[in-house]
Structure formats: structure tokens, C-alpha cells
Recover the amino acids of this structure.
């Protein structure tokens, strides 16, 4: 069992920045997983925001491209999401996800951290 613990959410004004962090309890699982951040806004389905694979390649949804940066530290088994130029539509609960490669292990999820962008 792998535990993912998010931190860094909170209230921020439009145009502001926040940095989310997620710590994994297993370095072994972490190091062969694609790590991702998802979010779920009120009344909407959960959506993928950004991913970073074990080699460091990243992908983003179009709406956050150029504003958000995902990064990972394989030594510390952490993944971060730097969010800049935040907009009200970024308000959501953000979830950390670990997707182990190979297809034999389940995905792991954190419990989520709330990000509220409001003036």
C-alpha cells in the first residue's frame, strides 16, 4: 500500500501563486510511476491537470499550459505542482496520483487539497 499526502492548498487571489506538494510513502513505487495531479471543481468531473513520468517528461492540459509546472524529486519521492497566474476557474480540490508502469499495480490517490482562487 502506498500513501500519497498532499499539502500546500489554500486561498489565493486571482493572479497569485501556490505550490502543491505530494509525498509518497514508497520510493520504489514512486520511482517507476508516472505521477500526476488531478482536480475536481464543484459539480464537475475530476480532470487530469498534469503528469510527469519517471524520466521527467511532462504533459499539461491546455488550460494550465504556461502557468503550471509539475516536477518530481525521485530522491525524496515527492512531486510538486507550481501554479502561477491563478484564475477563479482553477478553484478545485487537487489530488495527487501515482500510476505505476507495467499495468500490474493499481493507481494510488491522495486525499486531496483544496485550492480556492478568489478575491
Amino acid at each position: 500500500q502506498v500513501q500519497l499526502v498532499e499539502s500546500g492548498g489554500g486561498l489565493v487571489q486571482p493572479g497569485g501563486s501556490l505550490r502543491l506538494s505530494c509525498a509518497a510513502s514508497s520510493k520504489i513505487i514512486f520511482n517507476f510511476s508516472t505521477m500526476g495531479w488531478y482536480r475536481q471543481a464543484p459539480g464537475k468531473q475530476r480532470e487530469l491537470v498534469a503528469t510527469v513520468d519517471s524520466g521527467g517528461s511532462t504533459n499539461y492540459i491546455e488550460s494550465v499550459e504556461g502557468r503550471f509546472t509539475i516536477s518530481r524529486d525521485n530522491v525524496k519521492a515527492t512531486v510538486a505542482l507550481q501554479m502561477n497566474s491563478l484564475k477563479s476557474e482553477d478553484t478545485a480540490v487537487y489530488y495527487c496520483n501515482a500510476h505505476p508502469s507495467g499495468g500490474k499495480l493499481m493507481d494510488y490517490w491522495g486525499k486531496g487539497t483544496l485550492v480556492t482562487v478568489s478575491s
